[in-house]
Amino acid sequence: MGDAINEGVTTVTLADTVGNNIPQEFGEMVTYLKTNTPGIDNVVFSLHCHNDLGLATANTISGVCAGARQVEVTINGIGERSGNASLEEVVLALKCRGAYVMDGVYTRIDTRHIMATSKMVQEYTGLYVQPHKPIVGTNCFVHESGIHQDGILKHRSTYEIFSPEDIGAEKSQDSCIVLGKLSGRHAVKDRLRKIGYEISDEKFNDIFSRFRELTKQKKRITDADLIALVAYGDKIASEKLTINGNGSSLFV
């Protein structure tokens, strides 16, 4: 590498082509090369990581922490075999943590275009990301656990380290709260209030009890389900709750 620099190259790249490294050793390699390669400070030190062990983003960040200042990444992490380091993951890691643990490293990427770009690539390539894909997956801002929902309703940053607006996603507190078997009283009562119902504590206790029964039969509880629980609560309090073919609640 030193000979190449001496011959005039302006960029050198450390590649984990088969995705075999782990973050500690990859960072140590960068440190070793930065320390022992003549002229290394006069060229751009770049990284190219593959994701065969699911560590491409972690290895890339480790290399940046060790002094690399260029990274080769792909949108949605698409690439050979298991893919490459994901642009959106690396960029958001630098945005969220660069100032604290990476000597102020940052990019000039406008992160507000990340979601639109990700969706465009998915449409053109036909390679759609899984729902739990970090940053751009559909589940990124979805909260179902009761304690998480309570925290989100009080302050979004409790369980979200960046906001939907940061990546150009639509902000909707309603859509991020998914009512289901793990939901608590706060989330259910808040949703009832947002769809127009101010419920007394006594009546809410009854509604919430039947809400919990409904979650044994449905994974997701909709606004229509809540309206049915309120509107027909007194009438069907002692009757059996069933689900019709299209997923709506029916009381029979």
Q: What's the helix and strand layout?
A:
Elements lengths: L1 H5 L4 E6 L6 H14 L7 E6 L6 H10 L4 E3 L14 H15 L12 H12 L20 H9 L18 H4 L8 H10 L6 H14 L8 H9 L1 H4 L4 E3 L5 E3 L1
Short description:
The chain is mostly helical and 252 residues long.
Q: Tell me the number of helical segments per DSSP (H or I, 4 or more residues long).
A: 11
The helix/strand order is HEHEHEHHHHHHHHEE
Range of strand content: 5-15%
Which class of the largest domain in CATH terms?
A: Alpha Beta
End-to-end gap: 76 Å
CATH superfamily membership of the largest domain: Aldolase class I
Number of individual domains? 3
The strand order across the widest sheet is: 1-2-3
Instruction: Specify Rg, calculated over alpha carbons.
Output: 25 Å
Low-confidence stretches are: 236-252
Number of strands: 5
What kind of sheet is the major sheet?
3 strands, parallel
State the secondary-structure class.
Answer: mainly alpha
Per CATH, the architecture of the largest domain is: Alpha-Beta Barrel
| Residues in helices, as a percent range | 40-55%
Mean pLDDT, all residues: 84
Reported by name, the CATH topology of the largest domain is TIM Barrel
What would you call the shape? elongated
